[in-house]
Amino acid sequence: MLKRVLVVMVLLGALALLLAACGGGGPDTIKIGINAPLTGDIPKVGEGTKYAAEMWLEDNPELEVGGKKYKVELVIEDNESKAESAAKANTKLITQDEVLVIVGPQSSKQAVPAGGVANDLKTPMISPWSTNPKTTKDRPWVFRTPFLDPFQGPVLAKFATEEFGAEKAAVLYDVASDYPKGLAEYFKKAWEEIHGPGSVVAFESFTTKDTDFSAQLTKIKNSGADVLFLPQYYNEVALIVPQARQLGWDKPILGSDSWGSAELTKLCGEPCYGSFFSTHYVAKGAKGATKEFIDRYQAKYGYVPDDVAALTWDAMNIVKKAIQDCGKITGDIEKDRQCVRDAMANIKEFEGITGKMSFNEQGDPIKCAVIVRINDQGEFEFYKQVCPEGMQ
Amino acid sequence: MASKLTNKAAFFKQTPALGWLLTGLVIAGLEMAVGKPLARFLGIGKIPALFGFLIIFKKPSLQFPFIFNDLGIIAGVIVYDILIYLLPLVLVTWLTYRLTNRVAGVLYRKSALLSVLLHILLLYLVLRLWTDISTYRELVTRLTMIAVIVTLSLNVINGYMGEFSTSHPGFMAVGAYVSSVFTMALFTQSDYFGPARLPASLAPVFFPIALILGGAVAAFSALAVAIPSFRTRGDYLAIISLAYMFIVKSLFENLEVVGGPRGLGGQPDLASFPVIFVWMALGIWIINNFVRSTLGKALNAVRDDELAADAMTVNTRKTKMTAFLFGAFWAGLAGGLLAHVLRYINPGSFGLQKLAEVLAMVYFGGLNSVLGSIVGAVSINLLGEALRPLELYKWIVIPVILILVMIYRPTGLIAFREFDLVEIVKPKEIKEGDDATA
Amino acid sequence: MSATEFFQNVVNALQWGSFYALIALGYSMVYGVLLLFNFAHGDIFMVGAYIGFFVATAFLALFASGVGIITLPSWAILVLVILATMFLTSFVGMAVERIGYRPLRHAPRASAAITGLMIGIIFETSILAMFGAQRMKFPELLPGLASASQPTFGGVIISWQKILIVGVALVLMLLLQWFVSNTKWGMAMRAMAFDFAAVPLMGVPLNRIAALTFALGSALAGAAAVLYSMAYPVLDPYMGITVGWKAFVAAILGGRGSIKGAALAGFLLGFIEIFAATVFPSTYRDLIAYSIILIILVFRPHGMFGEEHTARLRL
């Protein structure tokens, strides 16, 4: 009996060897890992990442490096919107799939630990969306494409002061989420630098997945603030703004780049009209490569891309540039990674669809922000551009 | 034919633990020696990290006939598994079961304790060799070993004590934060706590203290749940512990010293494979002794009939409190290990999602059973990793499997079973007559 | 805190508490009758919201003035949407009971709780798989309700929407109370809650009562989902989790199987959350709200209206 089993196994093995001889990927591929939250709290962010990356692959099925063509392969991993899972996904991408470079994860909750893994295992990683300084700090292998919160906060504080002549501000933010909390604090700091301590008269918070904000908004309304700052994600904005209007708040509302989704006006409707927010790019009235990207994305997936998709697109192109700058793929993955990292660190200027950026020594870009107004048709309208000092 | 087959496979039943470990060692060695060239030869490219599931399920397709990857590659993976795992498994156990039985017998008669220790050492070697092949495999194994501790510690409360506690993510959070603060303040230069106070070379020595401290604080904080909920019998533990979990999460979100919602990162890299293995082995050993002690038996008595237990002079309240704090201690310790594996923690990681995960592991593996908890933690963790390529659908497949297990084995896969290491290391009886009588 | 602010928050809390109360009732009934934690309930509520979305879209297309075949006034459409959603959601509840709980009737209760948890995850993932990551906007059932002049009372804005939500919620609770205390089926449910073992022997059909309990609880969740979606019109597959677990807290806080208790505890939880956010820095809301609950349970370990029940747990 045992002999028979053995014979069957050996036969099976021989058959598979024959089959296997026909298939299999060669060394002539470049693998790019995508670490995105396809499930969990923010699946929409994951979807945008995935779509943008897949669209990029259509344009770049092959990359020419040092005169030789390489097939490009994307390895997309879900991080379930969890820190642990993002670290695992990165480890898998690096050691198992042997990707050359990783794009993602998106939110800082995952990007901070995943960046640690990439840095330890010496694989270049670029996060398209994470705005937390810790993601890239002291990590030579980790890069990013968005501007940082310490820049966005002051931009908005200055804008509200000049535009509305506001003296007192109110802030409502999600305390359990990294991005809104950080931004709220930078805004508060910047505001108080302009208007003196105590000028942020209401600094209210809630927890992720809350839907009722009436207590906080009642407080804000009675605080005498001139402007309300909401550094929240668009889906939460669509809940907060109508409730604020219902409770009688009729003063301006100001938002951050996380508002920048086509879904915002669809979900929020009229209450959001007339509000302002800062972002990386504007879909309406976009020109050149930006417009081309938006039109293609919309035609393909049926909606105007969110900022996360645009930033992912830029990240993919930075990766492409770095690979091409590197000049040659040796097949020795460790050497190639080193080469791509060095090339990426050497990119000083990059013209992306989310604006021109230059990178500092931490791997962070310095780029301009755009202030957008939601007009009465619910469209995002370019209002103003604000750049860091020494840039235009 | 059927009886013949069972008889032929009878050597599986007669293989002692020592034989299995030896086989494992052979497999791990074999993979290390020939895995790479074999994988390349078969066209899979790399050694499949988790038996090739990741490769097979890649490019998920939901259309009939559910082909996931290229047939050639799938066949390659299957052949790889047969050649590296299945064939040696059958061959080595078959060839050596008589020998290993004899050796196990000698060892067992000499000293059962020594034999147990030797087995553990062998297990360590097997795992170490097996995980040495890929970093990913190693990380998964490290996290799985931590999950084993967590699952066991919850089984003490939900299984042996028969209550329904939902506070485990909270205990883990407390342990993770306390131990992180301890190690970071002492041994690392960080934005939170300033420069290192002690040389980093001392860190491995102090790490157990950090972990135990984390566990102890978790156990202490568990008093907030234990004191109100064990005054009477009822389901109030479920809600009080849930409230506790919400409170802990909210507390850490508000503690700016440890990073608030931004989390705490940059823990020293102390939770290496051997360290976690030792803690897991210690955890299993201590928890197993605990549940088999008089106190553990009293715990079961309390679960089955509190009034009767009380009448039999069991101090029910004290028993329950002790067990609860004991469970909390190990959960906190596991949280500390987790923090030092990930080297980044944030309050959001210790919420309802974690709770669902931990509960699933306990009930899948089996209530009131140390072995069940190990099986539960390992299978849910491996399943979660193996089904990764299914993306979204993973979260339909895993719940369906769990529901089926619950329906057909309501108390879990391996429930209500004693776990006796000495019994395990014993040689198996070989019935020579079996081969002939068929 | 000024008087205006105080009363404004009372009004806010009434609306917020209505949802907790309606959802908690579903937990409480199942817990009372079958001694089960139905952890799928929050996700049944979520599925209810999606059902409500489709029912509302369909009814608006059929009956709204201007576009529909037959024109109905918008309040009639609202009533129809709520009733249809309740009806359809009750089947979701019964299906959950049939698939996830009935096979486990004699298993440890905790195992059934795990099946519930898993069914909830399946619901979330299926909805995500079906509709993608796009969030949905619940259609406006009563157009003009938000823009109409809202009733105010000395500076306190009591919107029509809040009156509607609290009103419907109260009517449903009273109806449930009437059903349970005055009908044959209600009596059977109460009997079952009193003694799970003996009552089926008296000829009360256990399975049918269990299905009925789930149907009623889910119908209430469906109604809550429609009202909730009117107030917070962004639907997403994970919307039921937090609300669900918190309503579970309210259900147990109310006391085992007590309808009055669950309803009041739901409102109490709403008040605690709103006022914790008002009086203290709102960051500390969960911390304070749950500490209060912890303290209440220290003094009333069986909930506000629960009696000490000595029935042996079936584990």
Explained architecture:
With 392 residues, chain A is α/β, with parallel strands linked by helices. Chain A has twelve helices and 16 strands. Chain A has a seven-stranded mixed β-sheet with strand order 8-7-9-10-11-15-16, sandwiched between helices. Chain A has a six-stranded mixed β-sheet with strand order 2-3-1-4-5-6, sandwiched between helices. In chain A, strands 12-13-14 form a three-stranded antiparallel β-sheet, with helices on one face. Chain B is mainly alpha-helical and 438 residues long. Chain B has helices spanning 2-8, 10-13, 17-41, 53-56, 71-110, 112-132, 135-160, 168-187, 203-229, 236-254, 273-292, 294-304, 306-311, 316-342, 352-365, 370-386, 394-408, 421-425, 433-437, and strands at residues 264-265, 344-345. With 315 residues, chain C is mainly α. Chain C has one domain (3-142, 158-299): ABC transporter involved in vitamin B12 uptake, BtuC, CATH 1.10.3470. Chain C is built from ten helices and four strands; from the N terminus they run ααααβββαααβααα. A two-stranded antiparallel ribbon of chain C has the order 1-4. Chains in contact: A-B, A-C, B-C. Chains A and B meet through helix 1, strand 3, helix 3, helix 4 and helix 6 of A and helix 1, helix 5, helix 7, helix 10 and strand 2 of B.
What's the topology here?
The complex is a heterotrimer of chains A (392), B (438) and C (315).
Chain A: H1 2-22, E1 29-36, H2 43-59, E2 62-65, E3 68-78, H3 83-96, E4 101-103, H4 108-120, E5 125-127, E6 142-144, H5 149-164, E7 169-174, H6 178-195, E8 200-206, H7 214-221, E9 227-230, H8 234-246, E10 253-255, H9 263-268, E11 276-279, H10 288-301, H11 307-326, H12 333-346, E12 349-352, E13 355-359, E14 365-367, E15 369-374, E16 380-386
Parallel strand pairs in A: 1-3, 1-4, 4-5, 5-6, 7-8, 7-9, 9-10, 10-11
Antiparallel strand pairs in A: 2-3, 11-15, 12-13, 13-14, 15-16
Helix pairs in contact in A: 2-11, 3-4, 5-6, 11-12
Chain B: H1 2-8, H2 10-13, H3 17-41, H4 53-56, H5 71-110, H6 112-132, H7 135-160, H8 168-187, H9 203-229, H10 236-254, E1 264-265, H11 273-292, H12 294-304, H13 306-311, H14 316-342, E2 344-345, H15 352-365, H16 370-386, H17 394-408, H18 421-425, H19 433-437
Chain C: H1 3-34, H2 41-63, H3 74-101, H4 109-131, E1 136-137, E2 152-153, E3 156-157, H5 160-182, H6 184-194, H7 206-231, E4 234-235, H8 239-254, H9 259-279, H10 285-299
Antiparallel strand pairs in C: 1-4, 2-3
Helix pairs in contact in C: 1-5, 1-7, 1-8, 1-9, 2-3, 2-4, 2-7, 2-8, 3-7, 5-6, 5-7, 6-7, 8-9, 9-10
